[in-house]
Design brief:
Blueprint: E1 8-10, E2 14-18, H1 24-30, H2 33-36, H3 48-63, E3 67-74, E4 80-88, E5 95-102, H4 111-126, E6 131-137, H5 141-149, E7 153-162, E8 167-177, H6 178-189
Parallel strand pairs: 5-6
Antiparallel strand pairs: 1-2, 2-3, 3-4, 4-5, 6-8, 7-8
Helix pairs in contact: 1-3
Length: 191
């Protein structure tokens, strides 16, 4: 089994690296109501202890080769500004799920657009999945924009249990296949 805890990826403005226990304080501080409301499993208050528990669980999944849990850092400042993760589906190991969020100060800067190609390429390669999907509540237009810029196509609407709010929520899912991603990457290389 492959251990992803040493995974580091870079873009022109960002460094993505496996989350570390030392990130707990900043991740806790970044998790605001305006962000948590859109996330299924990040409940408030998101204490430092909750962050530590989550980070340890995600690092264990990374150790077992089932998840890429990445902290997003601005290269210029070194500040952690959010997280992105791709995880192997527990039921279908050929399917991956994506989750992402940025702290409020990082919104509107194109950071999630920038990390998409790098994270998807790493996930298809390292997790060896055939498809990656992401979902969001029907009102979350910004997240749908991220999914589209990652090359994902709308798949379906379905109910998803949001443990953060202890209820089922109707979500819209988008997905991209390995072949579709490789086709987008090939088209981008022709420019």
């Amino acid at each position: 089994m492959t251990d992803f805890r040493d995974c580091t990826l870079e873009t022109s403005r960002l460094k993505l690296r496996c989350v570390q226990v030392e990130d707990a304080e900043v991740i806790s501080a970044l998790m605001m109501p305006e962000i948590s409301r859109w996330l299924a499993s990040w409940s408030l208050p998101f204490t430092v202890e909750k962050a530590r528990v989550r980070i340890l669980r995600e690092r264990e999944a990374a150790k077992n080769g089932n998840m890429l849990p990445l902290a997003i850092e601005e290269r210029a400042s070194g500040a952690v500004i959010g997280c992105v993760s791709i995880f192997r589906d527990a039921v279908d190991p050929q399917k991956g799920g994506a989750g992402y969020w940025l702290g409020m100060d990082a919104h509107g800067k194109g950071y999630l657009r920038e990390v998409g190609p790098v994270v998807l390429a790493a996930a298809f390669d390292m997790l060896d999945v055939d498809v990656i999907e992401a979902g969001a509540q029907l009102e979350n237009a910004a997240s749908f924009g991220v999914m589209r810029c990652w090359g994902m196509s709308q798949a379906d609407d379905r109910w998803h249990y949001a443990s953060a709010r202890e209820k089922d929520e109707l979500c819209r899912y988008f997905q991209i296949t390995r072949a579709g991603f490789e086709g987008v990457a090939l088209d981008a290389g022709k420019d």
